[in-house]
Every structure is written in structure tokens, then in C-alpha cells.
Write a structure and sequence with these properties.
This protein has nine helices and five strands, in the order E-H-E-H-H-H-E-H-E-H-H-H-E-H. It has 196 residues and is an alpha/beta fold. It starts with a strand and ends with a helix. The chain binds adenosine monophosphate.
Length: 196
């Protein structure tokens, strides 16, 4: 199964991707996690991405496309993967199409988590509080000021992807405001219907 999860920051893509990955035994490919790992490891990519990520802006298409192209060739992706936070621009969406067709593999579904913007800042603040309470590192971009920029970037560059996939007849939407379990169930329903 090859799946793209779309939605603004804080929509629950990561939570759902992780659940689906566990259930279906395929990896969750979060470009945000991969970039944070590169920053942590101090690699060349990490050095170039850090300031951009801290400001809530998008890292260049070239960097992100290269990371994903390399990742999907790993053996654990052979049975499928869930793209979480990628693609985020039209250039990236075209790159996914090219990557998949070069490898003769098809995308099964593009699912957008539809959420109410007003709830998002609250979710991000809670994510930061939960991480702190659990003794985990708090993401530098999980604060209201940077979040505003992340949401602006989303509307400018990522929201057009819903039209892109709708036009291809691929877009499915799910109510991202429901409980975590209900969202998972709705996604599973979409996947089952798509598989038929
Ligand atoms: P995320 O964990 O998905 O919220 O991503 C955190 C940050 O990583 C974003 O605000 C961007 O700076 C960067 N990032 C993650 N995925 C992408 C992507 N597909 N394209 C560009 N930048 C990305």
C-alpha cells in the first residue's frame, strides 16, 4: 500500500500515519522526522535545513525530493509506505509521480485530513506540553508564533495539492476533527473501499 496523508500542521497526520504503519506493517515516511534526524546528526542537509525549519518555512524541494527518493528504495519500503508531510508543494507532487512511475509502482490513495484551523494552534500547544511532560524534547517550531508561519506556508504551497489530486480523481477526505480512533476507522474505510 502506498498512501499520501495530506493536511495542515497539527491535523494528526503523524499520529494516523504511525497507527496505519503499525497495522499494515509498512513504514511511515515523515520528511519532518527525517529532516529533524539530519539536523540532530549535523549532516550537510541538516545544517542547510535547520534555520528554515526553525522559522516554520519549507525546506527546498530539491533537498526533500532527494531524501524521499533515497528512502523509498530501502528494502522496508518494498511492500509500501505512508508518506506523512510529503509532498508539500506542487513540485514535490510532480516528483512523487515521477519517482513512482520510474519504479513501476502506483499510489493507492491520497487522503486529506480536514480540520478546523482554529483548533490547530491548541493542538500544537498541547503537543509541546505533552512532550515536555513526558521528558521528551519539545520541537522548536511547536509554538504559536512559528505555527502561524507554518500555517501560512501550508495555505500558500501545500493546500493547492488538494486540487491537484482532486483533478486526478485521487483525493479522499476524512474528518480530522473526530477522535483519533474514529479518524483511523474512517481512513481504514477509505482504504478498504479503494482496494475494491
Ligand atoms: P513536520 O514534522 O511535517 O511538521 O515538518 C517540520 C518542518 O520540516 C516543516 O515545517 C518544514 O520546515 C520541514 N519539512 C518537512 N517536510 C517537508 C517537505 N515535504 N517539504 C519542505 N519542508 C518540509
Amino acid at each position: 500500500m502506498r498512501l499520501i496523508l495530506l493536511g495542515p500542521p497539527g491535523a494528526g497526520k503523524g499520529t494516523q500515519a504511525q497507527r496505519l504503519a503499525d497495522k499494515h506493517g509498512i513504514p511511515q515516511l515523515s520528511t519532518g522526522d527525517m529532516l529533524r534526524a539530519a539536523v540532530q546528526a549535523g549532516t550537510e542537509v541538516g545544517k542547510r535545513a535547520k534555520a528554515v525549519m526553525d522559522a516554520g518555512e519549507l525546506v527546498s524541494d530539491a533537498i526533500v525530493n532527494a531524501i524521499v527518493a533515497e528512502r523509498i528504495d530501502q528494502p522496508d519500503c518494498a511492500r509500501g509506505f505512508i508518506l506523512d508531510g510529503y509532498p508539500r508543494t506542487l513540485v514535490q507532487a510532480d516528483a512523487v509521480e515521477a519517482m513512482l512511475s520510474e519504479r513501476n509502482i502506483a499510489l493507492d490513495s491520497v487522503i486529506e485530513l480536514v480540520v478546523d484551523d482554529k483548533a490547530l494552534v491548541g493542538r500544537i500547544v498541547k503537543r509541546a506540553e505533552d512532550a515536555k511532560a513526558a521528558g521528551q524534547p519539545v520541537r522548536k517550531d511547536d509554538n504559536p508564533a512559528v505555527f502561524e508561519e507554518r500555517l501560512r506556508e501550508y495555505y500558500k504551497k501545500t493546500a493547492p495539492l488538494t486540487g491537484y489530486y482532486y483533478a486526478k480523481g485521487r483525493l479522499k477526505t476524512v474528518d480530522g476533527m473526530a477522535s483519533i480512533d474514529a479518524v483511523t476507522a474512517e481512513i481504514e474505510g477509505v482504504l478498504a473501499a479503494t482496494a475494491k
